[in-house]
Specification:
Elements lengths: L5 E7 L5 E11 L6 E5 L4 E5 L4 E2 L19 E3 L8 H13 L5 E8 L2 E8 L2 E2 H12 L8 H5 L44 E10 L2 E6 L7 H13 L14 E6 L2 E11 L2 E6 L5 E5 L17 E5 L4 H4 L2 H8 L6 E10 L2 E10 L2 E4 L6
Parallel strand pairs: 6-8, 16-18
Antiparallel strand pairs: 1-2, 1-5, 2-3, 3-4, 7-8, 8-9, 10-11, 10-17, 11-16, 12-13, 13-14, 14-15, 17-18, 18-19
Helix pairs in contact: 1-2
Length: 362
């Protein structure tokens, strides 16, 4: 059983009944006697014998081995919210006892973790936990900068959600001046690991891949369809271009979809959205798109995470390993976003397991 493999795991549910869950193998003992598996639809990491793991068959509707996990890793409050152990226990009790529906409000994303606030009919859980935190620290004069940055305007709040949670009937939270905060950006949720093909390389930290698991039109089918558009006369020459405009280009005798990135007189800089290549062309070489203008680009802008400095200079070796023309299948494990670029760890797939591409440069 290779690391990263998704399989069915025989494990008891929360009530102790035997059940099967989808799991991803995270670690394995050298002698193969024990594996650590992350239950990707439950959020638990368990250790079990390899005999508890089973191959996932392709279902009638889905390939359950390739279907992304149903969970997103979250944390209550901002990245600066460091909850004391007592407050953490209160939160767990509240969640376990509260059977009502909760509203999740994303705040930000940091290192792949979505920081959120939870709300029910009685209000915000972040505010509630801050109140509990103030009560537990009432005997301590020390206040952290993160705590003083939070603003509360509630004069009197009663807390009766769970056992052992202090009931607040006094004005323990004083009104503070409201601090103007920066607008909260909507979070980018990291995708699950996916199999991909590398389509273009600018550097080890700047390349493009296409997912072979996405429900996109096959790359070669798309190229054939674009040729058909041109041959049937449905794509016509453009007389002008503007930034953001979709068009059809011909590079190396291959027609590709592209988006205009910049215009300089009679020349344009375009990005081939299904490959990742960026080229300069005269405006008169651009063609209109008749059918596939609204279909999202297949190329995903990525970069390798944690590339050693000495490896960055070995770009030619990296390109030989990747072998773009051979369209080798790799496994991409997302790590974080840097702007709109997805930073990943890239693994070579073989019968013996997975090999991090960066291991070639050690």
């Amino acid at each position: 059983m290779a690391l990263g493999k998704v399989c069915a795991v025989n494990h008891s549910d929360s009530e102790g009944n035997p059940a099967f869950f989808r799991g991803r193998v995270e670690k394995m003992k050298k002698d193969g006697s024990l594996v650590k598996v992350f239950l990707m639809d439950e959020g638990l990491t368990i250790s079990c014998a390899p005999t508890k793991l089973y191959k996932l068959e392709h279902g009638k509707r889905f390939d359950y081995e390739q279907l992304p996990g149903l969970l997103m890793k979250c944390s209550l409050g901002t990245p600066y919210s460091k909850w004391p152990e007592a407050v953490d226990k209160m939160f767990v009790e509240l969640i376990n006892e509260n059977k009502s529906e909760l509203t999740v409000k994303p705040l930000t994303v940091l290192d792949g973790v979505i920081h959120v606030d939870l709300e029910d009919s009685e209000g915000s859980y972040v505010e509630l936990m801050r109140m509990c935190e103030s009560e537990t620290r009432s005997n301590s004069p020390v206040t952290s900068p993160a705590e003083t940055a939070e603003v509360y305007t509630t004069d009197k709040i009663e807390v009766e959600k769970a056992k052992n949670v202090p009931v607040v009937t006094e004005e323990i939270v004083k009104q503070q001046p409201i601090v103007q905060k920066e607008p909260i950006a909507m979070p980018k949720v990291l995708p699950s690991p996916f199999k991909c093909v590398v389509t273009w390389i600018n550097s080890m930290e700047d390349l493009y891949v296409t997912s072979i698991e996405a429900h996109n039109m096959d790359y070669f089918e798309l190229l054939e369809a674009l040729i058909t558009e041109v041959n049937e006369g449905r794509s016509t020459q453009l007389k002008s271009a503007k930034v953001g405009q979709m068009c059809l280009i011909e590079v190396d005798e291959i027609f590709q979809r592209a988006v205009v990135k910049s215009v300089d007189g009679n020349n344009v800089e375009v990005l081939a959205i299904d490959e990742g290549r960026q080229v300069s062309l005269p405006v008169t070489s651009l063609l209109s798109l008749a059918k596939f203008e609204d279909m999202p680009g297949q190329a995903i802008h990525v970069g390798l995470a944690d590339v050693p400095e000495e490896a960055k200079a070995q770009l030619d070796i990296f390109k030989q390993i990747i072998s773009i023309d051979e369209r080798v299948t790799f496994l991409a494990r997302p790590e974080k976003f840097v702007g709109d670029k997805l930073m990943i760890k890239l693994f070579e797939i073989s019968e013996d397991g997975e090999l991090n591409i960066l291991d070639y440069f050690e």
